[in-house]
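Researcher: Please translate sequence to structure tokens.
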Amino acid sequence: MENLNSKQLEAIHAIEGPVLVLAGPGTGKTTLLTYRIKHILESTDISAENILCLTFTDSARQTLKNKLVELIGSDGYKVAIHTFHSFAGWIISNYNYYFDEYLLKQNIDELTKYQLVNSILETLNFDDSLSKKVQDEFIYTSDIIDSISLYKKGGFSPQTLKKSISDDSSILKKVDTLILDNLGSISRISKSSLGNFENLLDELSQLKEKNAFLGLLTNSLDEALDLSKSSDVVDTKPLTKWKNLWTAKNDDLQIQTKYSMSLKKLLSLAHVWEMYETKLRDLGYYDFDDMILQVILVLQKNPSLLANIQENFYYTMVDEFQDTSTLQVSLLQTLMESPANENRPNILIVGDDDQAIYGFQGAEYSNFSDFINKYTDVLVVNLTENYRSTDKILDFARSVIVQNTDRLENSFETLSKQLTSQKKSKSITKLVKTEHEANEYLEIVNTIKQFQKSGKKLQDIAIIAPKHKHLEKVAKFLQYSEIDINYERRQNVLENHAIKEIITILRFIISVNDKTSNSDIYLSEILSYDWVGVDPAVLYDASLHCYKNKISWINFALKSPELKPTINWLLHLAKRARNNTLEEILDLIVDSKEVGMSSFKEYYFNDDNFELQILTSLIIFRNNIRNMVVSGGSSIQDLLTQISIRASANIQLANNHPVITANDSVNLITAHSAKGKEFDVVFIIHASQYVWVEEKSKTSKIVLPEHHKYILPDYNSWSEKHRLFYVASTRAREELILTMSKTDENGRDNLLNEWAHSAIGEKSLDQVETVAINKRKLAIAEIESQSSFITKDSNLKDYLQKTLEDYELSPTHLNSYVDVVNSDHNQFLLNQILKFPKSYSIDASFGSLAHSIINDLHQSFSKTSKLPSIKEIEIKSHKNIDRLFLTDAEKRTLKQRISILIEKLLAPHSIVFKKGIEQVSELDFSGVGVTIGNNTRIKGILDRIDVDEKNKTIIIIDYKTGKGYNKWPGPNVDNFDAIKLHKYRQQLYFYYLLLQNHPKYKDYQINTGKLVFVESLVDNSDYAELSVDFEIDEAKELEKLIIGAYRDIKNLKFLDEQPEYTKNLKGIRAFEQDLSKD
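Model: Translation complete:
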């Protein structure tokens, strides 16, 4: 800790009680957190698993974990590092019997939410405030969705919103009467109107009813009157402002509160919200906004659960505290509530109010002062030594942020957040002005090329803007100029050219089966796809022949030797579509191999051309289709209808996979995404008043009453935009370059934003450059600004190395990797690492359902010592089956098979559920930091362990569906069953190693593992079983294999040519022996 400053050390050593660390940009907060964890582990008997770290984003979580592992080794994997939502998910997963109803549901996407609200609006009366349509489209749908989300984040429910409105309505009538009596006759506010307002204030104050609305109304009027009379001359502007804020004229041209005028709309909103929640429950959805709220409610209702979690985490640390929402803070406060800590919980929060930029997600920078007031004797540590930026950059940033009055520094007299640089290197801060916007991009390109010539790495350069639309154009210029980029651009999957090819084939199938006239249009397009492999000359001839002879493309293709294989394949798809599921048809489109054409899969995903953007888009596209079935849609036509609705509602199917054209690339990021990052050189582009300050987001047509507006996000406020510009400025280590054009793309004059303008006045910028126009380059630039965006990918190795940074090996991955009989390394890459999408088989669906049912029964049994009835389980299971993408016949078969399983599980002789033994089910070791050997990370989900606390023993139980076995094969048996049982045995030993290397279970004796075949009964009474008495030598052999396989996978050996092994159990064992060698 010799390199840490005194303030950092103060926070590191203060491990007991509440601590608030104010950490400005570049002051080493991540270093502080990692060293504090190290100090706790070294100075107490607390285990790494008992430390909880919460942060705001997945990238921040990953950064913290990486630095922690680098500092303390494998224990860093064991510290519980979560985002708030992943922590809520962890609680639900680990204590799922408290969340029985919640676990049945899946997260609702934006489109389904949109359709759900529309279906509710269809049921409203035609004169309802929210049922208005324009061109047959409801105009309030998006605003209803946004308002519900806001109210949820503000802690409201439909019932509490209704009650709030009901409580206000009686007061509103009296308030409206008083306002009309006192202000109704005033056409223009003047000095003589002062008495009317004073009388109104007096009468409002005398009302007996008291609530938040009346209190805020009265206080604001009192303040307006004080401001009006604050000088010798009466100023009526505050009164005019108050009147405009709180009142308006109704349809009868009489003055009343705006709240009264919006009352019907708000009541309708509460009613729609109530129906929305009912539909969510009925359809098996949950809203993402509900997850944290659900956890808070369950914790508050179950003190024993809360106590259990509190005992699990003795120390809590929260990073980026300024970004926490009201609900997230509420979750924290619930976790900290314990009489034992005497209002001094062991919690440290780190953040900076000047970097609070997530108001659109409900974050509140005022959380800092609330924290200080909430707990007793809070230690406040202020970090001001900056290790990132030079003095020049910090001076500019300081001159920017001090213009913002909503700061903690202005609330505490003794607090100074002036940052001092610990870097002595020279730097530049400058503003570059150009005549036109396109010229601005050219100047950025030229400057970057100069940096390249001087030896600067592109990865140390960033271009920052407030929104993606400002980055997309400069991205085109960079790529046109052959400068590589790293751009996390949100793309619409449905605009990806390969996905559009699949959609066109689906449209062709529908047109053939429905006998519509669009078949020729779709077919001619399909035949032009590169992967279909038709010579363009053949297409030209076909087009002319069909036009001249007035015959259809289908009839021509059936007689054409070059086109016949393709049209036969397409017509075969159309025929299969009448009986097969949509997912099965997609499998046939993606992976069919026909004479004369490569498959879609072979063309886009091969060694020479592996299209990651297409793969990620395809995965998202397939997942979206699986979500469709929950809302009752499962056909090709349902999908095409959904695509049409998305287009009309402007709801993208988003893919956030980054466009990375090389390892060394210029970073294009929004100011929000730049948080937590730093670069040698930062360009802040479009540094104008309009782009950074005045540009507005859309406003809602549902206006909240003033006393509810505290739930509104702060993202449109001047203060938050101010902080956003400050965050962008403080990403720079050595050079900060602001760029802007004198006119925008529409020819409007641009002004430098007010914060940078003030900084120039204070001479915080070194220089202001005006760049002359190069007309030839400008013309080229303006043409390029209209071109399409290029989505070239980096090579596959770069992508995989990033994907596997946090890799944990599971039994499934191990068995798949060594299986030289049924798989190869390319299939391992596609299916296990890249998760190439394919339809679920009925057997896989059954296995998943069976494990879910058994786990539900275990949870119920452990909670109540009772089991539900066969009927209850059947109803629940059949609902889940109805949501699967299977044919009706497959669903019927699956329901019959599940019903038979349930009867066996609940039979009196069933050995699955035993009293007197602690049975722990669905024990998930993902992300908990179990390691073997030299930091080989492993994970797995154990179906069940039977724990004998008295004798400190554990038995591992693994449930299997399908064919049952009651003996292990002999050493010379080499067939399908022998291979399967070889995998099963290794799986049991894998679970043995997981338990042996987890701190919670390392002191237990784990002697036995059992396979229980739940579909197979012996003599109609007992389940078929296979047992293993664990041997140390066999466990060590598997440990060597795991270490070898993990090393291979991390080193991307599966990309190399695979050695040849015989395709039998002997070959699998030979490969395993080679992997086990050091």
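Researcher: Any highlights?
Model: Residues 158-183 form the longest helix (26 residues).
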